[in-house]
Amino acid sequence: MTPDPEQTTPEHRASEPRPPEAAPISADAKLALLRQNRERLDQDLMLGRLRFESKPRVFEFQLSNFCNMSCTMCYDGNNPPMKKFPEDVAERLAAEVFPTASVLSPFVGSEPLIVTWDLARGLAEQYGLELDVITNAQFLDDAKFAELEPHVSTLTFSIDSHLPDIYERIRLRSKPDKVFANLPRAAKLCLEKGIEPQANIVFMTENAAFIDETVGYLADQGCKTIRLLAFLCPPGLSADRDFSDALKHMSPEWVSWMLNRIENIAKEKQVRVLFEGRERHVFDYMPDDLEFRENRKSRLSVWDEIRYFYPGYCVQSVDHIKIHADGEAYPCCVAESGKLKLGNVIEQSFDEVWNSKEAQDLRRGMLTGDLPDMCKGCAFHTAWILPEQDQLPVIDWYHDVHSPERARVSDDNRTLAAREPAHMTRTEDAPTFTWDAPDHAVSGYSVVFGVGGTYHENNVVFEIPADATEFTLPEDAWRQFGPNLAMWWFLVAHDDGDGSRSTRTAKVRCLVRHQPIPRVEGSTLYD
Questions:
Q1: What is the value of pTM for the model shown?
Q2: Number of C-beta neighbours around residue 73 at 10 A
């Protein structure tokens, strides 16, 4: 039977503080190591490596699997026996990986502020890590807040309803009175210390009808960012448990109606709401003049860039790893119960796990679009496939660097209509571009390609005669494009007179030269 932390001995409540074995890493040394690791990751990605030389920036570490609640989205009243990760192995992993890591998230289906809290705090102090704390707030009194305050720039409360009866149906074994007393006090302390108070809500059939009111309640308590997360069936339970998945049981029309209500609340309360369901929606009405601590969780991250260079490449699989108390390692917060398992860090070295056959096969799948079933509909894949873009740096590169002698096309003059190839075309064959000729004479066309849509030494421009309305990329030029790498393109029609009638396509589209890569022999990723 799982012990109740309110009544257990101190060893269940917290680990003993451990003395550091060496002086903590200085801020300057830490930043240098982070930059070095980011440079290695850039090389890993740009060279299309399957074996990474970089190490994970975010370490999601279940130092203990113990939680004081048994939430229906996690264990549904059937918490597993308590297990703690071996501290000697934790020390080994920390010494190997934490110098180049930015973030320690001491949370995997557990409550981080009990049992192994002192160990997590000690590791953060030793290796200069930001703690990513997601807590149910039941133990978040003033003393605990004082302990975590130096190590966080955000603090996330996991609160699935503001209505006590619904809250208790979702969060079994909880003590709502303590939670709802601690929440506003902790949020107020966060704001006083420059820490952004955030909240997570799992979008479930149980709370869906009043979820807009829950968003408003959390905003009133002081939360500035509120995430609505899709429900995932708890591992080991019957698929019938999916009755809690609101996205399966609520119509798309109803979900859209509710999101509209939530956006109106976000606007009224001046907060940011993120909906991470089948699609990702951001309603950001947080005032620009709010000042919070630097969020070290995003320091030197590739999360913003990767979607421009490798659309759909899961950002979590790039620089993140999740370790369970039994040593099982997964690439992301979603993978569980053997699905996408990379190895076991208790039984193997970290590099054997981080660059296992499964890890390499996942990277191969992300490069080529040959994804495991679990990844295909995941928001960390789908939300990183961008739509056509109005503006990208490659436009400035073309006008300011490649063709500064030509008049710049006005942003109001984007009437050139491109037909093919469609946005996000992925093909092995050299593509043919087609467009509609403008209704006035032109002096010629340029089709412009930008690696990742950026300023880049491998950007390229092709000049096309004025009488053409199609252009097939030469095969040798096509082969020079990086394999499985996003090339963002647009078309310019030139008026070499005063330039006033020069125009370009309304959007910048993405094109990928597909290169198949065989699945890694011996990998169990697709079993």
A1: 0.86
A2: 22
